[in-house]
Design a protein that fits this description.
The protein has 91 residues and is mostly beta strands. It contains no helices and four strands.
Length: 91
C-alpha cells in the first residue's frame, strides 16, 4: 500500500517595505518576492506517512536613505532556504 505524492509551487509577491522605511526593517528584512517549493509524501503503511519539503526564497534587495545620516544608504537583502521532514501517524 505504498504511494508517493509529489507537490510543487511558485509564489510571487511585491515586497512591502518602501525604500523610505528600510531603517525600521533592519532586524526583519522580509524583502523576498519569489519562492519555489517542492514536497513529497510517501505512504509507508496504513498508519504512517513520511513527508519531506523544501522551500527556497530567491535573493532580493531594497535600498533607501538612512534618516539618521543623510550621507548613508541602507541596503536590506534576504534569501532563504527551509527544509522539513516529518512523519504523520494516523490513529
Amino acid at each position: 500500500n505504498e504511494s508517493t505524492v509529489l507537490r510543487g509551487g511558485y509564489s510571487f509577491t511585491e515586497q512591502p517595505i518602501p525604500s523610505s522605511e528600510v531603517l525600521f526593517n533592519i532586524l526583519a528584512p522580509g524583502v523576498i518576492e519569489q519562492t519555489v517549493t517542492l514536497g513529497l509524501s510517501r505512504t509507508l503503511s496504513q498508519k504512517l506517512t513520511l513527508n519531506v519539503a523544501l522551500m527556497h526564497g530567491f535573493s532580493n534587495t531594497v535600498s533607501g536613505p538612512n534618516p539618521l545620516d543623510p550621507f548613508e544608504t541602507i541596503d536590506l537583502e534576504m534569501n532563504q532556504w527551509e527544509g522539513d521532514i516529518s512523519i504523520s501517524w494516523k490513529l
